[in-house]
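Structure first, sequence second, as always.
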């Protein structure tokens, strides 16, 4: 099972792209557990909660991967990774435990960063466009530091889907 990671700042289209790819390819996708947890609590997550979010995200990916493989699928779309959880932990708390840093290094077969090239949409959970830009820059810098090959995709949803499909076909 190959895993596709979607990263990028808030309101950069990760969930929309994950859904579109899942529908187009009839494959599974794993939603962002951290958002679900934040919506349950509606407060800044503690360091311990963020570590649990990253662990739960990985567990959800592993379970979905096993189920998708049993159905003959070859790709799993992941609508975030523990790297994003690390970013929130560092931003909100100024530190992160080694266990979270280790989870943030989880490898993926294809890493795609969604460009923030359209209007920011405030849905009551997100911060603001400035945070989105800072989050985007931080993500790209961390991927470069970690030596993770990644591809930035922009444009409308159909353009992004076509670009990711080409990357998947090319074995990127």
């Amino acid at each position: 099972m190959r895993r596709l990671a979607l990263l990028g700042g808030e309101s950069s289209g990760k969930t929309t792209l994950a859904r579109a790819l899942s529908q187009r390819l009839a494959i599974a996708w794993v939603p962002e557990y951290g958002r679900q947890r934040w919506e349950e609590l509606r407060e800044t997550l503690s360091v311990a909660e963020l570590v649990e979010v990253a662990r739960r995200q990985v567990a959800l990916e592993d379970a979905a991967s096993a189920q998708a493989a049993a159905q003959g699928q070859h790709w799993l779309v992941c609508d975030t990774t523990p790297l994003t959880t690390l970013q929130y932990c560092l931003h909100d708390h100024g530190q992160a435990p080694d266990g979270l840093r280790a989870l943030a290094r989880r490898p993926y077969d294809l890493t795609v960063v969604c460009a923030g090239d359209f209007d920011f949409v405030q849905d009551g959970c997100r911060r603001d466009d400035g945070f989105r830009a800072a989050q985007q820059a931080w993500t790209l810098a961390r991927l470069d530091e970690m030596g993770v090959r990644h591809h930035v995709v922009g444009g409308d949803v159909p353009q992004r889907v076509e670009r990711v499909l080409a990357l998947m076909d090319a074995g990127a």
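Margin note: The CA atoms of residues 40 and 107 lie 28 Å apart.
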